[in-house]
């Protein structure tokens, strides 16, 4: 017979921290509320026709295929696009009507599948209208203070254009925040900030004490909520003024100081502390992300285990991690497929259309082998990279479990101060030397590749296209592997092979990043879709929507 004392020893229980208790209670309350079955059928909701929805949904799929971005950012991007069309294009020929814009915005989001049909309450139109009125007032006031005239210098004109565009970005971000307010994540962020603001310390020789809290908070929204740079700029914007409570006078004051606020926001987004703080925050973001997911699965069961049988709770953490690794590998393949479609639509077709005419124009021989390689190369390279991407190992899971124990149980709290370090600046000679070595590595890599391509009879046009794709795909592979890397908290051991590989490969990745950042600005497909196709397409969809409502009204009159 098993000794009862032995069973008791195995079921060791630890004490939950007060913040973790609040997290359990809040998630439990949210789950109860969602499962209570509250009948709100009597509350009016926005409805759109199925026909217009199908057309808009298809258009969004095509639009997103040629403008690659993370899934959780697509709706915010769509909001920004819609606002730009209504304010910048349609607003040129008509007065702004924030109520009409709000109604069109929500309707288009539902039609495109970003919001569920017959679920969005009509009162949401009033909420979005109130938000938009403030931004329209801010924009109009700013334009009066900074009128567009011939006396403006080029730098002043660019700044004016940048800030006016930024106002649209701020509006789209706040609307997205209104539509997707996750109270559980906000509570987890509060808990995380409370810990990190105590843990992260600055040495006396670093003059950034006044920036430390905002840098920690920006890092949390960047790593935990996965907000992009535009959405981070909204967080920093609110930090420098009381936008939420701003009345007409407050909006006018902000408009008068908007150029200065924009510069302060840019300064925070490019802060010297960013990389160091991110490295710390990334780990805690993973711990809190996993903890909230585990609790949300079954709050009662997880709470009983966490307070009564710690071993069972930690087994739940381990099982959840292993499931996440499988899901993230599957997501990696989906991202790879989407990337292949994006690259094919925006780069491959464009390059293929250029390659044959360019070869003929310069009198080079057409090599079907090189043409086939350039068509297939991006897909093959991405598939190889995905196949050899490693998922986190057992030691990584053990490290995650230790981290979750640290934020969950009083007995495991250690929170040793982490001091940020002052950047060690190399002298001019060492910096020049390293830059020379870096450039040499890139030149050698390209030289040997060109030699290899010459062997299989590539002409210089085909070689140029091949190198373009190599750089572009190399950088793109880093982007699509982010989902896997966010779960890895154990640093990889350095090897001689890895060092040599990085020495020759990283310069190519750097070129790919430069190409991606610059070529994305001149995406001809995006220009055609946004400025030539979208506006008339949305007019047609609107007519279909109105016609459907008209037919329904006529049908009701007959019956």
Provide an overview of this structure:
Keywords: Membrane, Transmembrane, Transmembrane helix. The structure is a single chain. This protein has 22 helices and two strands. It has 559 residues and is an all-alpha fold. It has three domains: 45-180 and 526-554, no CATH class; 182-241 and 260-297, no CATH class; 320-522, no CATH class. It has a two-stranded parallel ribbon.
Shape: globular
Q: Largest sheet at a glance? A: 2 strands, parallel
Overall structural domain count: 3
Strand order of the largest sheet: 1-2
Unreliable stretches, pLDDT < 50, 5 or more residues?
Answer: 1-10
The structure class reads: mainly alpha
Which sequence of SSEs, written as H and E, runs from N to C?
Answer: HHHHHHHHEHHHHHHHHHEHHHHH
Number of helices: 22
What portion of the residues fall into strands of 2 or more residues?
under 5%
Number of strands: 2
Q: Give the fraction of residues assigned to helices.
A: over 70%
- Gyration radius, in Å: 27 Å
Average of pLDDT: 81
Q: N-to-C terminal Cα separation, in Å?
A: 78 Å
